[in-house]
Amino acid sequence: MLGGVRPSGSRRSWWLREALAAEAAAAPHLASAAPPLRGTTTADVVIVGGGYTGMWAALRATELEPNARIVLLEADICGGGPSGRNGGFVTNWWDDYPTLIERYGADGARAMGDAMEAAVDEVGAFCDAHGIDAWYTKAGSLSVSAAPAQDGSWDDAVASLREHGLGDRYVPLTAEEIARRVRSPVLRDGAFMPGAATVQPATLARGLRRVLLERGVVIAEGSEVVEIDGVRPGSLGKLGASARRAPSRRGNGQGIRPVRVRTRSRAGDGEVLAGSAVIAINAWAAGWPWFAQRLVTWSSYIVLTEPIPDRLDDIGWTGGEGVADARFTLHYLRTTPDGRIAIGGGGGRAGFGGRIDGVFTDALGDARRAAAGLRRLFPSIADVRIEDAWGGPIDISADHLPWFGSVGMRPINYGHGYSGNGVGPSLVGGRILAARALERADDPALALPLANGRAPRRFPPEPARFVGARLIREAAARRESMEERGEDPGFVLRELSRLPRRIGYHLGPD
Ligand SMILES: Cc1cc2nc3c(=O)[nH]c(=O)nc-3n(C[C@H](O)[C@H](O)[C@H](O)COP(=O)(O)OP(=O)(O)OC[C@H]3O[C@@H](n4cnc5c(N)ncnc54)[C@H](O)[C@@H]3O)c2cc1C
Q1: What is the pTM of this model?
Q2: For ligand 1, is residue 82 a contact (CB within 6 Å)?
């Protein structure tokens, strides 16, 4: 089904290869501009993680305090993780409005919706301002039903938005209206989110890196953080990460002990002593004792077709909209300027104990599931060649929303839990983290309810978490496939797949 293509494993995704090739052609000196850390250095803020969250945080820190010394540590290269591997959907949160109201109240939900909508535009404005050709296309996003069981999955969100005078943020569409944007024999009704965009995700990540280097941020790639304040991943360490209302203390020479971050790289060991720290390591956070109980890691795989612009014309999908079906094991698909389709999802599975291993990068079966989704949705292009496949880890929280906080009373700030929807939200997350790290209590980002939210529910400990997640995932995937074939999944499968919701998690099918 993949025609001999295998998931890229630790090899770079197609997006990142493309971005790195363009970077090498335009500015070859950038490749060696972020050597590994060696020896001891100091910083006002040390940032762990060179994905969008860490890089937006660094960018914001340079705006808030241009003279601050910012050191960013990345185990791989910036954009080597999900920020250079994702689907490139820059979405807002209007489709999750009922959950936002439940979590933040009506005013808070509105504030969060507005912030996430603005973030989509800000990504585009950032690319424009810095000459980053990340294919930013604001053509909106379609939620579609691909089986009767998925019909009207957006009804609650649409109704809630209407009730609050926000009906234009997420608009229901009939099957005919969907077909005017994309034709498929299995697509039914849907909803349209006009305020969404797509990007070439890795070009955005590498563009961020370039701007940070231009602003004097010290970036050390190939530098894995192995210890923060005496705590190591997998160790028992000091538990008890808590969210605080506002940052109040920094280790900046005012009597607070600096944060000590140790690294390991091919160049040797390194160490940063910093006034404050930002931990922006996404799914890898599940391996650190502070966060292990509140995150489940989950894989997602993408396949990319050869360029097929004429075939896109045939199915009428020429407007650049992102498309996602309403499965729990959802398919998300988008086009590229040269006429390819990238489709992801359709499966995925939980990792064990916070380990980020081959489950997230080498699972041929999961990549095949994404390709099977393409063929089901568009049988008329079933013969197209798949050119590349890759996967990455997702950081699932109990309510599918990220959260931000600090570790105990230390100036160590973190943000994660985007649950597979972090491209736009990470810009807001970066602002929150920069404001926390630099103690800007009056920063507008810290007024957002997200900045002060409570931590989500814990997940059961391992191995129960792993076994439970796998069981429920199998039940959900099987149920959804049966529903797509018009078969009745039966009581047991239906109830098993609903179990997470029944016990209070905002996860899994209803
Ligand atoms: C296949 C896939 C498709 C997705 N599609 C979409 C989409 O279309 N739209 C959307 O909104 N979201 C999507 N997501 C989610 C999105 O990619 C993430 O939410 C987002 O990239 C998070 O950014 P981040 O900076 O927090 O994390 P990351 O990009 O994961 O960055 C974290 C970085 O931390 C580094 N790191 C980890 N541990 C250490 C350590 N100990 N020391 C140093 N560095 C460390 C990692 O190497 C990594 O580079 C997708 C994710 C995947 C995997």
Answers
A1: 0.95
A2: yes
